[in-house]
């Protein structure tokens, strides 16, 4: 018997079929409409994903990237909590279910999952896509609005991916507080922009005040050492481009890099990385330059040379976002 396809491949195949039957021009127009809605000030008073064409465009165009970003954040979190496997999972503003797929890719197996969103067409399409995964067929797709009235059943893991941007400041606060009250662990992912980072830092501070410890990316739960406005902490996940991407964006690159910012926090003990590589390492002749965020809260550039032996070999393999030194 063949082994079941891993979640990432399963998802790719399910998404590839989504736009079948839709004329290519119509598909690119739906994507262009969507990009326009996310440009500038994102509306917070009514759903952006209004109908099947909007959500099919979202799923085909953005879901592979949000899936990879959430998966990368969850992998870093899993490294910091090696003995922990989430039971129940709740995904807030889950849309078409990218985070449910990502959780399943990191910790396989069936678990109770609730995906909550206010856009019914997104939930309906999420359910359709999830039919491709035996482990996601029983996901509960719940239509609710994130806001002051939001209450959540207790759960192990709450994920919030690419949602804070669509909420008012008051609703962001309500969401983080509701997540902190309900969950043992909270993972939040945002676009890797200065604004995305600023929203994350706000959420990070709230989680710490609520008694959480930061598991990743930060090597500590103290204040972020980046002086506000001078830089922003973010990472990069590689995403294979679909034919729709090539159609909309032109060019023939087989992949693109999704920039994202994240925070993963838990109420239980965590083992954060000693240091984290916070920029793409620079490989020079005989040396590697690593920009590190360190457990003694500070940012430092380390120069690892051939004289460091095995550590130099490890530095040549180190990637942006990795723990340093590798365990
Ligand atoms: C950019 S999409 C992200 C979807 C999914 N989390 C992902 O990573 O692919 C933002 C989602 O947040 C949902 N959303 C925005 N504001 C909301 C609110 N006030 N209540 C519930 N859902 C909301 C939208 O409907 C949409 O599905």
Description of the molecule:
There is one protein chain. The protein has ten helices and 13 strands. Helix 4 runs parallel beside helix 5. The two termini are 35 Å apart. The protein has helices at 7-16, 24-38, 52-61, 63-80, 98-106, 120-130, 169-182, 194-209, 243-249, 310-317; strands spanning 89-92, 113-117, 140-143, 155-161, 183-191, 213-216, 235-240, 255-266, 275-277, 282-284, 287-294, 298-305, 323-324. The strands form two sheets. Strands 1, 2, 3, 4, 5, 6, 7 and 8 form an eight-stranded mixed β-sheet that branches. Strands 9, 10, 11, 12 and 13 form a five-stranded antiparallel β-sheet that branches. The protein is an alpha/beta fold. Bound molecules: S-adenosylmethionine. S-adenosylmethionine is lined by residues 47, 49, 63, 66, 93-95, 98-99, 117-119, 122, 145-147, 161-163, 166-167, 171. Pfam families: Rsm22 (PF09243). This is Ribosomal protein RSM22 (Predicted rRNA methylase). Keywords: Iron, Iron-sulfur, Metal-binding, Methyltransferase, Ribonucleoprotein, Ribosomal protein, Transferase, Transit peptide. GO terms for molecular function: iron-sulfur cluster binding; metal ion binding; methyltransferase activity; structural constituent of ribosome.
CATH class (first level) name of the largest domain: Alpha Beta
Mean pLDDT, to the nearest integer, reads: 92
User: What pattern of helices and strands is seen along the backbone?
Assistant: HHHHEHEHEEHEHEEHEEEEEHE
Q: Tally the helices: what do you get?
A: 10
Task: Give the radius of gyration.
Answer: 20 Å
The span between the termini is 35 Å
What's the architecture of the largest domain in CATH terms?
3-Layer(aba) Sandwich
What's the number of domains? 2
Strand percentage lies at: 15-25%
Largest sheet, described in full? 8 strands, mixed
The best one-word shape is globular
Q: What structural class results from the helix and strand content?
A: alpha/beta
> Percentage of helical residues?
25-40%
Organism: Streptomyces paradoxus
InterPro entries: Mt_RNA_Methyltransferase, Ribosomal_Rsm22-like, SAM-dependent_MTases_sf
Protein name: Ribosomal protein RSM22 (Predicted rRNA methylase)
GO molecular function, one term: metal ion binding
């Amino acid at each position: 018997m063949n082994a079941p396809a891993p979640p990432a491949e399963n998802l790719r195949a399910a998404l590839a079929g989504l736009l079948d039957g839709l004329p290519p021009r119509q598909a690119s127009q739906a994507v262009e409409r969507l990009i326009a809605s996310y440009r500038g000030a994102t509306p917070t008073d009514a759903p952006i994903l209004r109908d099947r064409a909007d959500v099919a465009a979202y799923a085909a165009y953005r879901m592979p990237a949000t899936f990879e970003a959430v998966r990368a954040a969850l992998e870093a979190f899993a490294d910091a909590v090696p003995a922990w496997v989430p039971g129940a999972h709740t995904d807030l503003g889950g849309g078409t279910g990218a985070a449910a797929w990502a959780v399943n890719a990191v910790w396989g197996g069936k678990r109770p999952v609730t995906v909550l969103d206010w856009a019914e067409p997104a939930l309906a399409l999420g359910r359709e896509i999830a039919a491709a995964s035996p482990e996601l067929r029983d996901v509960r797709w719940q239509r609710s609005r994130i806001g002051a009235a939001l209450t959540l059943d207790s759960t192990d893991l709450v994920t919030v991916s690419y949602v804070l941007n669509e909420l008012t400041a008051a609703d962001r606060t309500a969401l983080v507080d509701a997540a902190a009250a309900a969950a043992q662990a909270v993972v939040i992912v945002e676009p890797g922009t200065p604004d995305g980072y600023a929203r994350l830092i706000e959420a990070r501070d709230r989680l710490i005040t609520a008694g959480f410890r930061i598991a990743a990316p930060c090597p500590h739960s103290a204040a972020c050492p980046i002086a506000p406005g001078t830089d922003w902490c973010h990472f990069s996940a590689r995403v294979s481009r679909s034919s729709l991407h090539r159609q909309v964006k032109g060019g023939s690159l087989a992949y693109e890099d999704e920039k994202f910012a994240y925070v993963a926090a838990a109420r239980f003990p965590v083992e954060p990385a000693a240091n984290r590589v916070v920029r793409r390492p620079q490989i020079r002749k005989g040396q590697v330059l690593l920009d590190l965020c360190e457990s003694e809260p500070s940012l430092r550039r380390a120069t690892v040379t051939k004289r460091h032996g095995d550590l130099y070999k490890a530095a040549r393999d180190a990637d942006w976002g990795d723990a340093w030194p590798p365990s």
